[in-house]
Amino acid sequence: MENFTEIGKINNSFLKESAAGQKVLVIVPHEDDEMNLAGSMIYTYVQKGAEVYCAFTTNGDYSFAASTRLYEAEQSLQKLGVTKIFFLGYGDTANHYPGGHLFYHENEIVTSPAGHQETYGSLHSPDFSFQIRKSHSPYCRAAMRHDLESLILFLKADIIFCIDLDVHADHRAASIIFEEAMGNILTRGGNTYQPTVFKGFAYCTSFGAPKDFYTRNIYSVPLPPKADDSIIGLSLYDWKSRVRFPVLPKCRGHFLHDNILYQALFKHASQSAALHAVRIVNGDTVFWKRRTDNLIYQANVTASSGNPYDLKEFKILDLKNIDESNVSIIDHSWCPSIDDSKKEIYISWPNKQNISLVKIAGSIKSDGCIKRIIISFDNGSIYELGALPMHGRIISIKLPEIQQVSTACVRLEDVEGSRYGLSFIGFFAHEYEMSVINPYIKLLINDDFAYDYLIPNTVNACQLSVYQYNTKEKIHIYSLDDMDGWVDSDYVAHFTSNADRLCIRAEIEGNPDCYDEICIHRLSWRALQKLRLCQCIENRLLTFFLKKHRKYTHIRHKYLKKL
């Protein structure tokens, strides 16, 4: 079968752009979650020349020995080109563990299911605390937060990809404790370290996604179905606001055996991770951006009533119970007293700040609603906002002019109900976060990222659209060879009568360095059926082989206790 990833002209400015000199850190709970969360991003940034680090908060030692899980992680990451790995060395814990998760114990030491009370690693990979301080950390929440904070400051990565609130207790603990550690860093006096942070899911958009790899054209990550454990739709987790990254050819294609992600997943034999490659491999990778340049982190915040401290935290969503599948979000908000006639938040800075963008959100869990808000600055500027969306969804207000101010006041002017408040306030100097990631674009067909796209040769036109990251500029789309076809003003690609493929380029008008190129191939029914048959054969053979390998692995573990 032809390798269609090599015949078309399919360059992309994000994938081609060098990241030399940049540091990227991936933080996950278990050995194999790095693949579920960010496998393609790890490989992409290695290929772009960045220094890529991966950190695991636990040793994955619930069912298998830590030495096995750590070794598998090293082998898997080496396949992707990563050798700089940190193991924090905390215990792998299942939901509803009778001994109690360290998340519930701030300073009290707990015993993990594997029988440990302090961090540890392997002979060749000591835990992070021992590497840095020559002593192990106790199993408690404060220690994990301290280790994460130390790791982040030790590396000072430009980009951080971190796990979010999946249904697993260890995932939720890692997500929340990371945000607490990040908040401590951002609110330090005089802090200037502001990495680009992305949060993502290992389950609903990866490990638990549909088995949709074997298709004519690779699908992008689909919207997960609504479930009790899902937070998509709450606060900043609007599906339309997700950040979508394109992936390199080695991370996509039509077959798995030569896919670099499949090969890396296979190294996690104890987890039979390669069986899930059909779910994990997609045409994009999805995250939600958490801006760290919010000016409120370095401000003094007070209120006419109630405690406004939560508004200074990096953490937006919080949980008291990380074991239950049904997500019960804590109302992590500022709520004024019922008898407070002012209902105001006061923000002040020691020096004047330039503000061009304001973001704000109401309470995630609320019996009331905020129908009107007044934002005023000490330079006399006043802005009025209408009703805030439900479920804590964040709205953005681009100010018509940059405001240079020292104080701001946010007043709830018109409210309804008995309980209402704000879960987030953000003041930003720039509309888009200043980052090592430049704006990029990606052509889509049917809302899927398109690369080498296959269609029947009976189709004469194809509708295109464009995904834009950190840019709203006008996009110019055109054919790279007028003999093959053209793209009209409605972004519809048209083929000439005899053309078997059409190479298309999209670029920002006035900035040709921000571009995407794809190739649409028109194939005969016979060629498309041949592709489908070859995929079906590979799917059956790989599934049979991987299931046998899983059985062999678990028998070996049962009798030898070690892989």
Description:
This protein has 563 residues and is an alpha+beta fold. It has 3 domains: 18-290, Rossmann fold (3-Layer(aba) Sandwich), CATH 3.40.50; 295-428, Jelly Rolls (Sandwich), CATH 2.60.120.260; 440-523, Immunoglobulin-like (Sandwich), CATH 2.60.40. The chain is built from 10 helices and 23 strands. The protein has helices at residues 13-16, 33-47, 66-80, 128-133, 141-155, 169-186, 203-207, 260-266, 277-280, 525-560, and strands at 23-28, 51-58, 84-90, 159-163, 196-200, 243-246, 284-290, 300-303, 344-362, 369-377, 382-385, 395-416, 422-428, 440-445, 448-449, 452-456, 461-463, 465-469, 475-479, 485-487, 492-495, 501-508, 511-523. The strands form 5 sheets. The chain has a 7-stranded mixed beta sheet with strand order 3-2-1-4-5-7-6, sandwiched between helices. Strands 8, 9, 10, 11, 12 and 13 form a 6-stranded antiparallel beta sheet that branches. The model has no long low-confidence stretch (mean pLDDT 94).
